């Protein structure tokens, strides 16, 4: 018996103890830990038998056992790192989870390979059924990802809930004298002084102005005074003034339900009139930067009040009275900082109290700085804290004239991030200020340019959220805990966006990794034009303009560009000719923030996008695709939101399977001219996810739907004119998730639905016309079904099936009526 035989047994026994602790503590590593526990519990008797039997192994078999001892030793060290890792560090925990999966794979291979073929044949002649566990391991990552997409919880959903709890806790900490005093003074201006039409809240960025304004809007006394007639609008540095005026006027006149179109009548100029009998109304204008813009958004009507939130104090002849936000007191600052850094509201005994107070003091009472810097130091060793203190001490006092010093302070929180996490944070500066970023857009972009998979991208997203560097917002229309990541978007405080821009815009313009326009402008930056004689090495290019004609563009070459983001506000838009000079382009995002769908010109540039993998089109007329568009052969994701699409997929002239041979995901959301989904879409046999949502005119699905043999996700959410599902749906053998919620005129489920043997989840809430389900015999074939979300009226039929299927969970959905999600 060799010494390593004995040592392997000792390591395995110690590792087993650590794995049991991991199984109880870590969600990400639990599955690997449980499988390793099973393997090692089976291995221990064998190792002990070798240890005490006195049998001398051959050199090759002793070598195999030696290598296995090294594997176990590495596993023991890994287990200790897992147990030491803080639960907040999602990205680090993901890396450890993947190492645990690798360890599980190594152990499984050893057991099913050398040990099974040689060691066990000589010593114990046991057989191990480990290959099944190994197969489960291979599919686990995909299962975790699918569970996020079909809404079975996951990190992102947990992070959204955690952020909601954190926000409530933060408000509880700063909601003492400071916030209460601010609320009292602002309420007095709004409801206590009838002669004030326009009042304001001002303060430095990150001081809590918007938080105070939100609390005012939630206040019961305020809501009662205005009879819930409160409109909250974000203005930003580059607003569409006409659109904002139209929204305010529509709200004042009760015509908001008609929408905000370019031809809507809105009185010009600073409106003043005597509507003494009108209902009381409050409009909150957040993040106002310009006096000229503010003057255009004021309607001086006696029963109408405007609350202006800004970093600046505007003249008294425009804003009648202003409350300046007070920064946090020392005790409030310490409590908020400690909540972010330690998860409690006081300095723990194990922390260096002097060091903590020095760092808190340098945050100067700014809530945002306290939260972000505190979160960045969570679980870090004391040397990180000392380094952060030294950097903070180099800064000047923060005041209104030194906001750039706030950025330098906040930059400290970014410097301690993992390199990839930092890069993803900087990418957020590519999107317009004060706009919701679709989660799908962000994840796709990160996957394409950072060489990571979707699971790692989600982990980075949660890491940034946990460090308060972005905010995850759940769409109000979801209303329960079973939403998918499609209903979650990302927002970012404008100070944090400024930080991302500040860090990205260093260096020569041609050498920057991100070429970004910080705000909307009528034309491209002059700095870009002056440097067109050289190549631009940017990986991400983001443009934000109004209408662009062919003559408005100038030639630029981007040999390394992989992501192009085109943000604009207009009725027509000429796609940039320099797309031809982006040979590596992998993701193209086109978003129109105007009031109506824009007509795109120069769509022929798409014929040169051979490497394009992701295309997002929002609020545009989608031109008709043509068969020569074959270079889109690598396109995997196509999303069309608020688009006109009816003639885009003409089945009489198009062979979509040739144009999109590798398309795996198709999203069509709020496409109001879609009446019938073209049957040629069902010829794209590579499709794995099909989402037709909020398309209020679609009345029919293709009869050949069953041709999509690889389809796993089918979402038909909020299609009120859809009356039936085709019988061929039963041929979707791989379908895992079916969402028909809010299809209010859907009359029945076809009996063929019982053939969906892979179906795991069905969402059929607010399908009021479906009163009876197919026979229990047909439904009993849904062997994989684990969750059904439905209305109370039909739940009893599912519950009857629940008795025969113990793994099935029937969730009765709550009624949810809200139009808050329209505020994009």
Automatic annotation (TrEMBL):
Residues 1-149 form the RPW8 domain. The keyword Glycoprotein does not apply. It comes from Hibiscus syriacus. This is Disease resistance protein. It holds the Pfam family LRR_14. It comes from the Eukaryota. GO terms for molecular function: ADP binding; ATP binding. One of its GO terms (biological process) is defense response. Keywords: ATP-binding, Leucine-rich repeat, Nucleotide-binding, Plant defense, Repeat. Belongs to the disease resistance NB-LRR family. The keyword ATP-binding applies.
């Amino acid at each position: 018996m060799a010494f390593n035989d004995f040592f392997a047994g000792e390591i395995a026994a110690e590792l087993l103890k650590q794995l049991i602790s991991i199984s109880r503590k870590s969600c990400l590593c639990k599955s690997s830990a449980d499988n390793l526990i099973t393997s090692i519990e089976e291995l221990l008797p064998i190792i002990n038998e070798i240890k005490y039997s006195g049998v001398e192994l051959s050199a090759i078999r002793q070598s195999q056992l030696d290598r296995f001892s090294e594997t176990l030793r590495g596993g023991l060290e890994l287990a200790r790192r897992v147990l030491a890792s803080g639960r907040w560090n999602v990205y680090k925990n993901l890396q450890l989870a993947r190492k645990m999966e690798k360890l599980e794979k190594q152990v499984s291979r050893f057991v099913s390979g050398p040990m099974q073929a040689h060691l066990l044949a000589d010593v114990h002649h046991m057989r191990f059924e480990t290959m099944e566990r190994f197969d489960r391991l291979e599919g686990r990552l995909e299962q975790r990802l699918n569970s996020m997409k079909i809404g079975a919880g996951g990190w992102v959903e947990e992070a959204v809930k955690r952020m909601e709890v954190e926000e409530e806790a933060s408000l509880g900490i700063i909601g003492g004298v400071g916030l209460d005093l601010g609320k009292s003074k602002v309420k007095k201006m709004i409801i206590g002084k009838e002669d004030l039409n326009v009042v304001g809240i001002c303060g430095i960025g990150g001081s809590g102005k918007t938080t105070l304004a939100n609390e005012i809007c939630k206040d019961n006394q305020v809501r009662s005074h205005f009879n819930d007639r409160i409109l909250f609008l974000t203005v930003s540095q580059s607003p569409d003034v006409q659109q904002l005026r139209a929204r305010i006027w529509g709200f004042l006149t009760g015509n908001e339900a008609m929408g905000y179109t370019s031809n809507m009548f809105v009185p010009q100029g600073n409106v003043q009139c005597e509507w003494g009998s009108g209902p009381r109304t409050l409009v909150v204008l957040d993040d106002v930067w310009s006096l000229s813009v503010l003057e255009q958004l004021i309607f001086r009507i006696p029963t109408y009040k405007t609350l202006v939130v800004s970093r600046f104090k505007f003249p008294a002849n425009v804003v009648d009275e202003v409350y300046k936000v007070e920064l946090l007191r020392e005790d409030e600052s310490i409590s908020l900082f400690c909540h972010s850094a330690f998860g409690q509201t006081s300095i723990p005994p194990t922390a260096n109290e002097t060091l903590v107070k020095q760092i808190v003091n340098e945050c100067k009472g700014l809530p945002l700085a306290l939260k972000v810097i505190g979160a960045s130091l969570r679980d870090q060793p004391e040397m990180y804290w000392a380094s952060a203190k030294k950097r903070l001490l180099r800064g000047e006092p923060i005041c209104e004239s030194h906001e750039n010093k706030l950025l330098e302070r906040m930059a400290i929180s970014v410097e301690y991030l993992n390199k990839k996490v930092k890069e993803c944070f900087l990418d957020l500066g590519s999107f317009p200020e004060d706009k919701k970023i679709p989660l799908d857009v962000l994840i796709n972009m990160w996957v394409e340019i950072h060489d990571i998979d979707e699971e790692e991208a989600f982990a980075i997203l949660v890491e940034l959220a946990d460090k308060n560097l972005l905010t995850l917002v759940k769409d109000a229309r979801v209303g329960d805990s079973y939403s998918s990541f499609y209903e979650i978007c990302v927002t970012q405080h404008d100070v944090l966006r400024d930080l991302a821009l500040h860090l990205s815009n260093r260096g020569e313009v041609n050498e920057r990794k991100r070429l970004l326009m910080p705000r909307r402008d009528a034309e491209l930056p002059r700095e870009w034009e002056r440097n067109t004689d050289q190549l631009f090495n940017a990986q991400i290019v983001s443009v934000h303009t109004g209408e662009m004609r062919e003559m408005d563009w100038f030639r630029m070459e981007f040999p390394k560009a992989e992501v192009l983001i085109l943000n604009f506000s207009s009725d027509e838009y000429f796609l940039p000719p320099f797309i031809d000079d982006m040979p590596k382009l992998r993701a193209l995002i086109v978003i129109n923030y105007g009031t109506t769908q824009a007509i795109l010109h120069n769509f022929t540039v798409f014929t040169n996008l051979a490497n394009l993998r992701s295309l997002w089109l929002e609020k545009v007329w989608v031109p008709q695709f043509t068969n020569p568009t074959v270079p889109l052969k690598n396109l995997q994701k196509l999303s069309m939101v608020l688009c006109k699409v009816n003639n885009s997929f003409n089945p009489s002239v198009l062979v979509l399977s040739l144009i999109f041979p590798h398309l795996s995901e198709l999203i069509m959301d709020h496409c109001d001219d879609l009446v019938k989904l073209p049957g040629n879409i069902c010829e794209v046999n590579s499709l794995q996810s099909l989402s037709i949502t909020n398309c209020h005119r679609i009345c029919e699905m293709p009869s050949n739907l069953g041709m999509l043999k690889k389809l796993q996700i089918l979402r038909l959410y909020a299609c009120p004119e859809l009356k039936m599902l085709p019988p061929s749906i039963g041929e979707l053998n791989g379908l895992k998730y079916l969402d028909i919620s809010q299809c209010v005129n859907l009359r029945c489920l076809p009996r063929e639905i019982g053939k969906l043997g892979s179906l795991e989840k069905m969402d059929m809430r607010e399908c009021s016309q479906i009163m009876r389900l197919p026979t229990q015999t047909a439904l009993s074939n849904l062997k994989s079904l684990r969750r059904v979300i439905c209305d109370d009226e039909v739940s009893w039929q599912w519950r009857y099936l629940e008795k025969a299927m113990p793994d099935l969970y029937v969730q009765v959905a709550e009624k949810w009526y809200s139009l808050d999600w329209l505020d994009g």
